Amino acid sequence: MMKTDSPEPILRVAPGPSDINSNGHIFGGWVLSQMDIAAGIVAGRTAQGPTATVAIEAMKFIAPILLQDIISVYAQVERKGRTSMGIRIEVVADRARGAEQVKVTEGLFTFVALDENHRPRPIDWAD
């Protein structure tokens, strides 16, 4: 599991029956949207304002998410630019009523900070 400043996940979600595909696994698009939500939370907090997803890089599906899983989405800033940041996302499934944890996917999401005209703006990196 990724080492973050906070060991707490940014997001915890239980998929529902409508999120399952014909193989009995959760749709990849569903987990991708959960990852984007978590990354957006971190990006908005970091940029102290609105941000937009501009790229998803190095996306890797490692193991399927099952209907009974509860997923935890971890996120941290991995790359800092003038107007953008790379957010590393890892998703871990709690399986078998919490008896097992399985890393199911990971990716790197790039966000750009936006001004009031929805144009890129510089990020004030306080650290």
TrEMBL record:
The keyword Hydrolase applies. It comes from Sphingomonas changbaiensis NBRC 104936. GO terms for molecular function: long-chain fatty acyl-CoA hydrolase activity. PROSITE patterns: HOTDOG_ACOT. Residues 5-117 form the HotDog ACOT-type domain. This is HotDog ACOT-type domain-containing protein. Belongs to the acyl coenzyme A hydrolase family. It holds the Pfam family 4HBT. GO terms for biological process: acyl-CoA metabolic process; fatty acid catabolic process. InterPro entries: Cytosol_ACT, HOTDOG_ACOT, HotDog_dom_sf, Thioestr_dom. It comes from the Bacteria. GO terms for cellular component: cytosol. Keywords: Hydrolase.
